[in-house]
Design a protein that fits this description.
globular, Aspartate Aminotransferase, domain 1, Aspartate Aminotransferase, domain 2, alpha/beta, binds ligand LCS, 7-stranded mixed sheet, 2 domains, 14 helices
Amino acid sequence: MKYKNIETNTIHAGKLIDETFGALSTPIYQTSTYTFTNTEQGSARFNGDEQGYIYGRLGNPTVRELEMRMAALEGTEDAAALGSGMGAVSATLFALLNAGDHIIASDALYGCTYALLEHKCKALGIEVSFVDGRNEMAIRSAIKPNTKVLYVETPINPNMVCIDLDMIARVGRNAGIKTVVDNTFMSPVLQQPAKHGIDLIIHSATKYLNGHGDVIAGIVCGAADMIEHIKLTTLKDMGAVISPHDAWLIIRGLKTLHIRVERHCQNAEVVSQFLEQHGSVKQVFYPGLESHEGHALIGKQMKAAGGVIAFEMHGNFDNAVKFMDQLQMCKRAVSLGDAETLIQHPASMTHSPYEPEQRRAAGISDTLIRLSVGLEHVDDILADLKQALALAYEDIARVG
Ligand code: LCS
């Protein structure tokens, strides 16, 4: 059952009914295998004559509920849940690509996605082209007869560059190429790429979907035949399986997704404005600011700008380190989308898999800082940032 509003769907859509006890909360089917009444039933399940569970790597009722909930939220026919965001990225790419095929990807990506393409895919004989995902002409000119996939993130981790989903879907459709969008930074509450014609939507469910910093998981949403292909090939045979308990934690997280995302956005809006007017900060990258190129996509494909801000400080890297180390409440940690405000330095942390030259070419400078604005009272976040900026930049700080 699907409702008109996403706020209701995060709670109800795709929910399985517990016929046995009528439990409100989804039961956790903590089992690795399923018994067959007799041998005939076992073989009927294997050869597809009978529907039913066989073995935990091939399916689980709690995991299935998560998949149906995510398909409902992203507006796709189906979804596959996996053991990590990278599990979802790799299962999707290796289901779509074989040796001799070609993929076009945006030049800036989450560091491990970049590493998978640059190192493993290339080593396996898959051709990879990195292009500016905003530039339609650059994408079109990169297309070759063997191009199978066009892959982007928007907003991009970590530089917050935004890419027009209508354009990506159109280019892919016209060239007969599958389009894949990593929607981790937005969640389906803020952006639903399938509505724009994107074929497959990936999430690191570790982030906003779960939202509590206690699970590593991934999801891919799309048409039923493509999801079945992923499940029967790379999920089954490469095995990045999610545990039923982790699936349950994400189902729980989804119930508050819309409220959490709303507060993340409100807090990030205030923090981005504070940083933009602070004398110690050189540039702020946040689509909620009018100064940001991606601002034009708000209302068009994004409901709001999300909870992640990137920014450059004046001075050199030592000043940035001093600032980060002075923070008291905000946590120095990678990941994002948690209740706690998290801060990290992409060049030395999440995006260290890039060669320095390629990283700079992709617009990820050595002094870029990434802030995942949490759910604390915004005044407390501001107070912590202010005191750390003041201490790190005693000479230039203009604490407001
Ligand atoms: N896609 C994006 C956009 C991500 O940000 C991440 C993780 C992944 C995929 C992979 O998901 P995972 O396997 O970790 O669930 N991003 C991280 C980050 O920015 N800091 O730590 C992890």
